[in-house]
Amino acid sequence: MNTGRLETFADGVFAIAATLLILSVDGHFGSCAPAGATLGRQLVCSWPSYVAYIVSFLTIGIIWVNHHTVMHQIDHADRTFLMITVGFLMIVAFIPFPTRLVAEGIRGEGARAATVAYGITLTLTAVLFNAVWFYAARGGRLLRSDADPLTVRGISKTFVFGPWTYLALTVVAAIDPVAGAVGFGAFALFWVIESSVFGRDRSRRSTPG
After folding, report:
1. What's the rounded Cα separation, in Å, for the pair 30 and 5?
2. Which of 85, 106, 129, 148 has the smallest set of CB atoms within 10 Å of its CB?
3. Under a CB-based contact definition with an 8 Å cutoff, are residues 160 and 130 in contact?
């Protein structure tokens, strides 16, 4: 089964999920500022929603880049692979919801619940993403015949840390919501750097010819 339609569907889900993140940005600028505050102060007061938007947009963007890397190694798909991917994309589409929870609740009593919900969502995303990759890569089940073994091993070693890191950050968030939120942001920045610097080598090795 050709992967073209699957990639098109996945790209659509990623695009919609990233777009929906804008709903996490506080549109009621006066809600966290004193009555009569200037617009500038109201905008500054809403900073958690901007940070939540940026972190989640980077996270979805990096997941999309990594998904592109994975699909470049895959020659065809079977029904099981399609269903695992559907489950993975379902969680990706859910990311805007906990993002809004964090944006609205990080400074209140709901901070712990919001950051834990965010962490659980990202942990599930990483688990299912790994399931997508390892199902395809196990024994070369769905990989291209010319897939570079070094690239395949590199992808496997890189992606396997994601679920454990998100799980650890979720535990941190349950203890200290702010520290957990900072950790999620730092991990997103790490993936941006990792994909920008080390991802180039994987891309070169995975290019046919």
Report:
1. 45
2. 148
3. yes
pTM: 0.87
Per-10-residue mean pLDDT of the chain, 209 residues long, equals 90 96 73 67 81 95 93 93 97 96 90 97 97 93 89 89 96 96 95 73 49
Contact between 136 and 152 under an 8 Å Cβ cutoff? The reply is: no
Between CA 48 and CA 43 the distance in angstroms is 10
Pairwise CA distance, residues 73 & 48, whole Å: 38
Q: Rg for the chain (alpha carbons), in Å?
A: 19
Candidates 27, 24, 35, 33; CA nearest to 60 is 24
Structure tokens that stand for 68 in this block = 């592109």
φ/ψ region of 115 (left if φ > 0, alpha if ψ in -120 to 50, else beta) reads: alpha
Q: What is the DSSP track for 56-92? A: HHHHHHHHHHHHHHHHHHB----HHHHHHHHHHHHHH
Nearest to 65 by CA among 17, 132, 14, 16: 14
Query: Residue 176: helix, strand or coil by DSSP?
Result: coil
State CA 181 to chain mean position distance.
14
